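Format notes (please read before filing issues)

Several people have asked whether sequences and structure tokens are stored in separate files. They are not. Every record keeps both together, in the order shown below: the sequence lines, then the token lines. Line labels are part of the format and must not be stripped during preprocessing.
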Amino acid sequence: MAILPFGRKRASGAPSPAAMQDFLDGFSIEVMPRTAAKVEDFRKILPQGTRVYIAHIEGTPIEEMTATARRLSDEGFPVMPHFPARIIKDEATLRDWIARYQGEAGVDQALLLAGGVAEPHGDFTDSMQLLESGAFGDAGFKRLHVAGHPEGNRDIDADGSMTNVSAALRWKQAFSETSDAEMAIATQFCFEAKPVIQWADDLRAAGITLPIHIGVAGPAKLQTMVKFAIACGVGPSLRVLQKRAKDVTKLLLPFEPTEFLADLADHAAQTPDFNITKVHFFPLGGIKATATWTSEHGNPANQPIQAQG
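Then the structure lines:
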């Protein structure tokens, strides 16, 4: 089946291969314990050194999380587990999780976020409280990522504004200036480049200089994409999918993010100080499908390594 790119057809035809390769260099990808278990060997599908986030969904035992982290670390990948504030009972639990990740998998980086839970399980309600605890600094974590929302977040700003999410990023920017850890913003996925570019420019103008790792939905069927986009609270760029969904003949055809990433890549190539510096993939259509797409569009010199032994 043909694979359709997000958004409009590019007037110039294919995207600039060099710009796309440069923009995809050093991409990261997100897995869950149950999806990671379906991959026989990540070394066969991902470039060496790819950062792998492990999403911590409510109800997943910490033992499954650390086992997945250990497996990925043993295969040679830097691991960045999620720490969702609202499912962490208290500071003792937070420090226990950190110790487990360090002791079992050598983890020294984390994504801190509030988590998609309506009612906190304990003392924490947001990622700022996790940062304020000092637990990551005490453990010597070298890299800390925080969440970004290019289209806002209704759970944070119920009125549809960007008031609270922007205030939170200003706080995290200030925190980064006092922390020894490298920090960056990892965003929700979206589907239109122009509003994302404007959002990134607005952050820089507001003095928020943290590098941005833009969230991108990997190749998936349209129905799958729409389902996850609605569940994850994707904002106005959802119209890209809704427009396509009106054509019933294309409902079963997979989408890929070529157009979205090509626009961002071309902008990055023309804008040396562009603050979107990395791409983070949500493999909605499967880890292997996303890995194949990145291999086809990324730097040929940065290909998966073969499993040893």
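For reference, the curators noted about this record: The chain has one domain: 16-295. The CA atoms of residues 74 and 105 lie 8 Å apart.
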